[in-house]
Amino acid sequence: MIIIFASVISVLFALLHLAIYQAFVSIFAPSITLKIVVIFALVVFGGSFLLSSGLSFFSDNFFVQIYYTLSAYWISLASYLFIASALYGLVHLIFRYLRPEASLSWFGIILFALAIIATVYGLIHARSLYVKNVDINLPQLPQEWQGKKAVWISDIHLGAVYGKDFSDKIVSKINEINPDIVFVGGDLYDGVKVDEQDIIKPLAELHASLGTFFITGNHEEFRDDSLFLKAVRDVGMRVLNNEMVNVSGLQIIGVDDRDSLSAVKFGGILKSFNIDASKPSILLKHQPSGLDIAEKAGISFQISGHTHKAQFFPLNIFTHLIFKGYDYGLNKWGNMLEFTSSGVGTWGPPMRVGSDSEIVVFHFKAK
Predict the structure, then answer these.
(1) N or C: which end of the chain has fewer CB within 10 A?
(2) Which of 254, 280, 282, 277 lies closest to 266, judged by CA?
(3) How many CA atoms lie within 13 A of 184 on its CB side?
C-alpha cells in the first residue's frame, strides 16, 4: 500500500513540475544553459518532499527537520506555481487560436509573481493562531453546563515542521481563554519520528477544571499509536478510545479514528454505549463522516476536524465536495449539530490561504 501511494504521488509530483517547467520556458524563453539549470533544480526539489518524508519517518535530527521543512516550503510554492502554470497554459491555448501573434509573457510573469506572493502570505498566515467562538444551543442542557466553555483543537501535526515551541504557543493561548474543558481531536502528531513525550510536554500545563480529553486521528496510526497514547496519558490527558463518560450530566463520547471508518463498526460502537437520546451528548470524532449513523444513535452534537479546510484555495472546493458541505463550520444533520474545524497545524504545504489555524471555543447554552 505504501509503495503504491508513493508511486502515485511521485507521478503526480513529476507532472506538476513538468507543467511548471513548460510554463517557465514559454514565458521566459530561457537559454539552453538556464533550461538545464531549471531542469536540475526541479528534479532535485521535486523529489525532495518524498525523500525528506521518508527520512523523517525513520530519523529525528536537525538535518532531517531542516530538509523536511524546506521541502515542505517548496511544495507550498510549487502548488501555486502549478496553478499559475495551468491557468497560463489554458489562456495561452485560447490565444493560440484567436490571436496567435499575441505575446502572453507579461501575463505569465504576473501569474508567477502572484503565486510567490500567495505562498509567502500563506506560510506566514499559517503560523498565526485564531480563536473562533461558536455558540452551541443543546436541548436539555444540564444547569451545570450553562455558560461553560469548551475548547476544541485538532490537526496540530507536531513533528518536523511544528515542534515543542508550537505546542507551547497553543497551550498559552488556551490558558488565556480559560475553558472549562478541552477536547483534542486527533492528529496531535504528524506521524514522523519524534520524541513523543517531549514534544507535547507543554500540554501538561492545560488546567481546564473538567479535564482534557483526547481522541486519535489518522496520523496517530502512521506509527505504533501506543507510543503516542502513552505520551498523551503521561501529560494528563484522558484518552477516549471508543468510550463514553458522563461529565456533569453531559454524555461525552470519543471514538478511535480507525474504528469509526467502517459504518458497521462505528454503528456498533455507538450502539454499545446505550446513549440516552433524551439527554445531550457530544461525539468527538476525527473525521466529519458517518453523520447519519451518529444522528440515528441519538448524538446531539458531533465535533470533527481532519479536513484542514484544504489549507489553501482553491483546494477547499474539493474538500467541500468530498465531505458534502460538512468540511468546515457549524452545520446540521437532521436533529444533530455538527462542527468541523480547519485545525491548528498543517500537513504537507505548511501554508494557509483562505483558511485559518484555529482554536475553537464552544459556548454552551440551553436551547
Answers:
(1) N
(2) 254
(3) 32
Cα–Cα distance for residue pair 141/364, rounded to 1 Å = 8
Q: With DSSP H G I counted as helix, E B as strand and the rest as coil, what are the percentages for the chain, rounded to 5? A: 50, 20, 30
Identify residue 203 by its one-letter amino acid code: L
Nearest CA to 18 out of 117, 85, 97 is that of: 85
Please state, in angstroms and as integers, the Cα–Cα distance from residue 211 to each residue in 26, 180, 283, following that order.
59, 8, 16
Q: How far apart are CA 214 and CA 302, in angstroms?
A: 14
Q: What is the CATH number of domain 130-366?
A: 3.60.21.10
β strands within the chain, DSSP E: 129-138, 149-153, 181-184, 212-214, 238-239, 243-247, 250-254, 281-284, 301-304, 329-333, 336-340, 357-366
Tens digits of residue pLDDT in 256-307: 999 999 999 999 999 999 999 999 999 999 999 999 999 999 999 999 999 9
Q: Which residue has the cell 486521528?
A: 217
SS (H, E, C) 284-340: ECCCCCCHHHHHHCCCCEEEECCCHHHCECCCHHHHHHHCCCCCCEEEEECCEEEEE
pLDDT of 156-191, one tens digit each? 999 999 999 999 999 999 999 999 999 999 999 999
Cell of 47: 523529489
The amino acid present at 40, given as its one-letter code, is F
Report the chain's C-alpha Rg in angstroms: 23
Instruction: Spell out the domain ranges in the chain.
Output: 2-125, 130-366
